[in-house]
Amino acid sequence: MADIFEKCRNYKDAKIAMRMGIYGYFQPIESAQGPEVMLGGKKYIMAGSNNYLGLANDPEMKKAALEAVEKYGTGVAGSRLLNGNTKLADNLEAKLAKFKRKQAGLLFATGYQMNLGVVSCLIKKGDYAIVDKLDHASILDGIKMSEGEMVRFKHNDMADLERVLAKIPEDAGKLIIVDGVFSMEGDICPLPDIVKIGKKYGARIMVDDAHATGIIGKTGRGTCEHFGLENGEVDLIVGTCSKTFATVGGFVVGDEDIIHYMRHNARSQIFSASMPPSCIASITKALELIENDTSRRDNLFRLTAKLKKGLEELGYDLGTSTTPILPVHVGSNENCFKMWRALHEMGIFANPVISPAVPPGRALMRLTLMATHTDEHVQKIIDAFAQAGRSIGIIK
Ligand SMILES: Cc1ncc(COP(=O)(O)O)c(C=O)c1O
Description:
A hairpin with a 2-residue loop joins strand 1 and strand 2 (42-46). The chain folds into two domains: 16-46 and 294-392, Aspartate Aminotransferase, domain 1 (Alpha-Beta Complex), CATH 3.90.1150; 59-292, Aspartate Aminotransferase, domain 2, CATH 3.40.640. The chain is built from 16 helices and 13 strands. The model has no long low-confidence stretch (mean pLDDT 96). The chain is an alpha/beta fold. It has a seven-stranded mixed beta sheet, sandwiched between helices. A three-stranded mixed beta sheet has the order 1-2-11. Pyridoxal-5'-phosphate (PLP) is lined by residues 110-112, 115, 136, 138, 179, 183, 208, 210-211, 240, 242, 250.
């Protein structure tokens, strides 16, 4: 008889990496998520966080969370539908919708749950979800939970998008789903072309602005603002509160009727508890800080440009990113693990991304700065990459 646990006992990859001292995951951080973090009593420069604007340890954000704990307690102990709703959550939904130039919004406990709920409640039998090959896993998982079909097109390849759309029955419901900013490569989707092609084939469009919200667009409103497409060209914008908003949660904004339907049909929202009021209060504060002060974003882009220039001058391939996500391509998975270890020894925290998460031979160290880093931090990261890359033979 097959033992359901056999695969667990046979799973060796991570244990081998741990024994070799090249395991760069689940690193236990002992401090706040700032430009420097503590690990095992040692200080590291944090070059691998999604806390882009540095708000996770911001005094105003913490004050907002503490005040919410005082007023509402630590949690709401239930789903919003039945017993876990608060005025704070209703207000934040309205604010997020206004910020994204949409009629209404809906919160979820996490960004992952948001994509599961939004996608699975929209895509029904006979419908098609059309996705970029590099879309986030939560989008793909949402489609797997749905009753419809998934078709994928090559990353940011508009000819391939047309090719797949042309094959779908004309009268089928269609939803094109793309990441605004792709989480590993840091490139931006060609939204104007997607809108044009989507219209031609009668497809609705959904953009995941997890890494774009608060970052791209003149005032940080995301991919639609970046391209000047804020007049209903995109049907749904979704995002997470775990990156720039520096806490946890997910959201979707769109037309009133669509959001009303999701509020009553998205299972990951209905059958799961609300995020705690402290998170909602911090997100509300983050939105206020983003809307009223561009200096954090300006500093983030200035520091990122300096880091990018430094690494490119060393000879590294940084792909086509134009955002604060910098993928430093290092070749094989082995190079990636060696690079992680060398950087770790030099006090740099960065994220190793290996195949199958990226195509074979395209392993990368994913670098992201925060607005609160200093020029000195950036120089130290460049110096560490120079030393590590030369010793491993990735650069000359
Ligand atoms: C594009 C994208 N969508 C959704 C998510 C899920 O968000 P969360 O981690 O907040 O659950 C992520 C997180 O990595 C993401 O990058």
